[in-house]
User: What shape does this take?
Amino acid sequence: MDRTQPKSTAGQSGATADVRAQLQAEEASTRETLSPWKITRRRFMRHRLAVASLVFFTLLVATVFIWGALLPEGTARTADYDLIRQPPSLQHPMGTDQAGSDVMQRIILGGRVSLTVGILAMAISILLGTLVGAVAGYFGGGVDNVLMRIVDLMLSIPSLFLLIILAGVIGPGMRTIILVIGITGWMGVARIVRANFLSLKNKEFVEAARSIGVRDFPIIFKHILPNSVAPIIVAATLGVAGAILSEAYVSFLGFGIQPPQPSWGNMVSPGSFLLTITQAPWIILFPGLMITITVLTVNFIGDGLRDALDPFSRL
Amino acid sequence: MVRYITRRVLIAIPMLLLITLILFYAIFAVGDPVARLTAGNPRITEQDIARIKQNFGLDKPRPLQYLVWLGNVVRGDFGESIVSREPVSSMIGRRLGNTLILMGTAFVVTQLIAIPIALVSALRQYSWFDYLVTGLSFVFYSFPVFFLGFMLLWIFSVKFNQWGLPSLPSGKMYDVRGERNLFELVKHLVLPVLTLALLSAAGYVRYLRASVLEVLGQDYIRTARAKGLWNALVIRRHVLKNAALPVVTIMILELASLFSGAIVTESIFAWPGMGSLFIDAMGDIDYPVLMGVLFIATSLVIIFNLIADIAYAYLDPRISYS
Assistant: This one.
């Protein structure tokens, strides 16, 4: 981005530097108009790890869903006792598990579950968090107080305890797990959005909208919310990683997605952990690796977006 | 100050009550503890079930049950486990020590790893060491606990054993038939502590490094250097003190979680702590035990939140109470 700025103004008088900067700015503006999204994209493209992660994550999602749809119904769900705990081979590139199922096929099917849970649970968290944060920040006073006490309340219970109990209340299964992770993960977003609204609600453009008689909710959603989109996008990206991890932890402990339906979380918890490590480490290694790589790439994407969307960063 | 603390405490108490009330109802919504207890016993009759319910006071309306529970807790009585009939306070007492040994050690090791690394990394920004630290902390920050635990177990316990090298024990606090001395305990602590410490150190390093970098860019640091203060003194007196501020708050908040244990880590390494007590009790819907663990965990979070706020305001005079 430094192209449009004079490299060095040392030795020049301030006035000439100003003129030069202005000329260069004009030249730049005639060359191309940069919309905020264009600037963001350019900055993001400069974060190479984030771009590589985005490509990898897109490929991963495509592979898991297309391949998963091609596998016949009921694949890798029935036990085959002749094939128990086979080490990786040409036929079974990631080996077979304690029920004789192909680990790679289960990773594809489990990935469908884990990624769906991650993305949908994040969507619920972001929707809830944005709504609560926006209402609390905009209206303030008693509404704000009540909503923020609810946030405090939910944050006071250690998150994994809360997740396990709620999973127990609503019952195991993919849809319920999405719901449970969604409704235990919105508090951070609510705080971010609220802080944003607090700083924006007294700005002139809001004042202007109010003076021409725009109602509260249009002001919230049409005028203020678009200005807090950047932190929400970053929170959403990191939220996918968080939700995938939450699913993995709850399922690992046996309170999430139940076998025989595979998820990356319940695949790393095949009965006896220690026995499996001793006899057939690949059963845990590959799904564990998938969770780690996915979370890592999503975090890289989030990191890249944070830098790209930050108006103060000069990347 | 006193008014601020009083107000916060007055908000905290009804909140804690509300949380326990919600959790009490939630636990019973998970399932019927008596049905879980008697399941698979063909000789149990309707009368038996009614008698068991009466014994536990489960025949009364739910709000009354909650009030009875609350009344007992106020008097320091958490009731007894519906499975083992052991008092919940003694069950928790036994596990709390184990959890504190594990989590306390992990906490100290985390600081020992994180603080020097983050400092050197920030002071030599853009050096190869800084890049290495930033990269590694990012990777470890994304690592799921069970995967790191799996890798450490696989390499240092299983593989080392197969290769005939001195290997580390795979779990529990002591070997079943082994001696129970400090040396054995330390040997059993290495892997779970390393799992916990590496992961939380990654978070601390990222946080502390950013904090130090922010302070290094402040005007008062330039002033300190401009007046000719030695670098070591600038760092010790100005950078460290200011950079420590936000980190101290994080550390205090982390202390609360020491007591509730690390559920996943305890589960992997078969550590008999609070986390595994909770998991076991969840299977039986052993509600007095569950409520006991949750009550302690939640109260500690609320108390340490309060302490963190007060400490922050105390350490940083720029913050005013409001």
In short: The mean pLDDT of chain B is 88.
